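Weekly structure sync, notes
Attendees: PL, DS, HV (note-taker this week)

Item 1: ABC-type glycerol-3-phosphate transport system substrate-binding protein
DS walked through the input record. Source organism listed as Kribbella aluminosa. Sequence as pasted into the shared doc:
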Amino acid sequence: MKVLPRRRCLTVLVVAGTALLAGACGFGGPNSPAAGSNAPIPDTLSKKTTISFWHVYTGADGAAIDGLVKKFEAANPNVTVQAQYVGGFNDLNKKVVSSLQAGSPPDVTVAYPPNVLEYVKSKRVVDLTPYVDKAGAGLSKQDLADILPNELKRNRYSTQGGAYLSFPFAVNVAVLYYNADLLAKAGFNAPPKTWADFERVCAAVKALGRTCYSANANASTLNAIGYSYGTSPVAADGKASFGTAQWKDAFGLLGRLTGSGTTRLASTGDAQTVDQNEFVSGQAAFIIRSSRTAPFLSKAIGDKFAWNAAALPQATATARPTTALYGPGLAAFASDPDRQLASWQLIKFLGSADTQSTWAKSTGNLPIRRSVVTAPAYAAYLKQHPATAVSASLVADAHWEGALGDQGIVAFLPQKLRNSMEDLEGGILSGALTPDAAQSQLQAQATRLMAAR
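Item 1 (cont.): predicted structure, written out as tokens:
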């Protein structure tokens, strides 16, 4: 199978070959959070306390984090936060693993759920549930009701009895970006709402001598297309479900787009951005990327052409289109009562409505709080950033890329499976694989990898 070589900055990461995280591709059996995290929680700090916070944000995002940390320290003068950029998620994950092995982890880190499930095997992850529930220091019923329900669920873990081993921080969704000027030249005044319409638009764009869809073979994009067909990569019972008729339709779509010559495989994985460059240069009418891409596109495109975001086309027209949802949370590691309380105070602050509004406006991330979206300040921001406004409207009906139950995460996609998804999607888009062959191989691999968890 010939596909583009992969160089990724991945959403979900696995570190192999570490004794600490043996069997880390899923739920490897019950592992308790840190025993020390179950100690009585003090009402206040007993002394001035310093905590470390590892993150992945640099540039404007890093400046935003630094500004929020300073604001937190001003409101909490007994806490000093040593915020540190430690590289992308891959580097961060490796450094957290090494620090756990050395017995000196950070107090707080940015992390995706599968990484948290790796870290819990160290028995150093703090169960945040008692902090969430603690009168005064915790969150009120109104606060919890304000946070997006799926965000709460995907930071709880069913193997730990629904414990919060992380807490919501950032939300992103997969969206369709389109060149409105190019669509107008092709005879269309709005983006397509169904995949059938998408194929018709693509034929018209091809007639202009342009690429219709510059494709990035990406697991989240593939999942988003699956959701648009009413299916999911994993069933509610945690088993792989790529063998459904809906997935056959989804793979068939990719095959037709490739066979028609309207679609080009430009990139594979998050780190490769040829598809974005083709869109920015006006060569392509469509790309599918994260909502976080909007600020980059706005700066890169400027006033060269009119563009916007839209929901991915759906199998059938609907007033409630769906897509894939993702984004990291915040986890804490066991230390002493003062540092753990200070860590929770920072996590609580970063998830507050005021902070989420500032963070969203500064970075293009979507807020985890429902009240932020309707607040005047953020509503004004969305008027100035229509692509982000579209993304924000999609969050309520978006799906996290795994299975969620009443007590949180039931199953997630192992990284090896995500790699296979990208390889096989790339195989279809490059013409190296038929849709049926790709679907069959993916279901077989997914069944094996999900069972091996």
